[in-house]
Amino acid sequence: MDRTRFLRLWTTLFDNQAAFDAQTVWVHIATHYAGEGRFYHNQDHIGFCLQQLDKISSRLGSPAEVEMALWFHDVIYRINSDSNEADSANFFCQLVGTSSDCLQRRDRIAELIMDTTHQNPPASQDGCYLADIDLSSLGRPWEAFLQDSRNVRRESPHLSDEDYNAAQRKFFQMLLSRPHLFHTQHFRDHLEQQARYNLTRVLSAS
């Protein structure tokens, strides 16, 4: 992960009004993403997401806020938890604090983080791009997608293959049932076909 990029972003967005300074926040998030047992939801995933962001940042209403949401969207990742996104959003809010100068921006970014649950359509166009970025690895070439899938599997050693495959199948079927897997035209044009191929191939083999 790019420390200098994050420090600049935090300072730009919160201008020393946050509860914690940029360097302290960086230590927190870098430590979390380097945590034991993170084989997919780690620093590499954030780096990949930022690469996708850079391709579409000119399309965003608030690119800096979307970027901050990307940095934090998986910062809390606990095995067998259904609240990782909410916990990540809450952790972000704690680091920003309650300064009146930060509250509106803080809450917008927290809402963006929650868009990565992928349970409901995002309420904003920026949220749509953010959700698509988070899922963009589904549209990688088959071998890269397969390696990502193996890494995600390694993060759930407590689950039997049967239980893990059932949960994965449910999620993939939910995505494939949508008229479009991605919310935005950019990601539909560039990744939809490959992503549908990847998910369908996994399901056909299970």
What CATH architecture label applies?
Orthogonal Bundle
- Output the helix-strand order: HHHHHHHHHH
CATH superfamily: 3'5'-cyclic nucleotide phosphodiesterase, catalytic domain
Q: Which percent band covers the strand fraction?
A: under 5%
Task: Characterize the main sheet.
Answer: none
Overall helicity: 55-70%
InterPro entries: HD_phosphohydro
Organism: Aestuariirhabdus litorea
Protein name: N-methyl-D-aspartate receptor NMDAR2C subunit
Describe this structure in words.
- It is a single chain.
- With 206 residues, this protein is mainly α.
- It has 10 helices and no strands.
- The chain starts with a helix and ends with a helix.
Show the helix and strand layout:
Blueprint: H1 3-14, H2 22-33, H3 43-56, H4 63-72, H5 84-96, H6 103-114, H7 125-135, H8 142-154, H9 161-176, H10 185-205
At a glance:
This is N-methyl-D-aspartate receptor NMDAR2C subunit. With about 210 residues, the chain is mainly α.
Name some characteristics of this structure:
206 residues; mainly alpha; Catalytic domain of cyclic nucleotide phosphodiesterase 4b2b; 10 helices; 0% strand
